Amino acid sequence: MTEFFAEKRVVVTGGAGFLGRWVVEQLRRRSCAQVLVPRRTSCDLLRGENIVSLLKEARPEILLHLAAVVDNPIGQGDAAACFYQNVMMSVPLMEAARRHGVKKMVCLGSASSYPQNAPVPHREEDFWSGYPDESRAAYAMAKKMTLVQAQAFRRQYGFDCIYLIPTNLFGPGDNFDPQTSYVIPALIQKFCQAASENDSEVVLWGSGKATRDFLFVEDCARGILLAVEHYSGKDPVNLGSGRELGIGELAQCIARVVGYSGRILWDLSKADGPPQRRLDVSRAEREFGFRARKDFLEALRETVAWYQATLFSAQQRDRGEVYAQRT
After folding, report:
1. Residues assigned a catalytic role
2. This model's pTM is above 0.85
3. In which band, very low, low, confident or very high, does the pLDDT at 311 lie, cut at 50, 70 and 90?
4. Which of 132, 223, 282, 304 could hold 239 in an S-S bridge, CB 3.0 to 4.6 Å?
């Protein structure tokens, strides 16, 4: 570790979220002088006056914009609110940041913003070569607008805002809400429940043939801070593992880790989404020396262990209490 952050004042929007908590922890490990995490209850970033007050009071040198409204992966009609809120947080925040003397800003994109048929591995040069998958288009395009703004602000004002594109993240503290969780937490929850109830089969959506690039959240947090310290380019940079894993293989891995031995069935009436996704991570390695360190299976075990020790044990206890009351 270097002393780059030792005297820096840093604001982390979304710092209480899944990725944000890991970033804040790594900032503290680096003896960052001041880390401020605005909370939505007292600093709603959709209100311009809150943004101005935040920056006036905190006077950050570095602004890490990790806050985002993520659309529902199973499609509950929230695309419009997702688009509006992401745009209306980012646009005034960047304008206020450059007006209030922020030296460097980081904005996060999304791997879902890549065109639906982009060549694999996805290279940053292909980011604008087509339209994203229709099911994620509102979120994907809102995130892409931030890159347009960042590059425009760099040209006109010389404002140093870098844009990073993380792939699918996972790890302890992930979102395990069955209505809104993504593939790894959703599968962990499903297989843990099936194992605890000795189910003979588990039905999963799709064919299991689609592939994805999964990055451990701690690696992503480290990559963000490496970029803050060493990168000031105008071009977007991927943050991924550089590895491609099939959803079917992922399901088998999770089943083994949680101790589920029943059958795995696939519901072919449900869509797979994009058939492949893997990010080209050569630019991140070249520009600021980032490479994923964590072994996938080890990271998966840590994530399962965290879920079983926290959320799953609480869910089982609640079910037991409900059953006792009924009997």
Report:
1. 139
2. yes
3. confident
4. 223
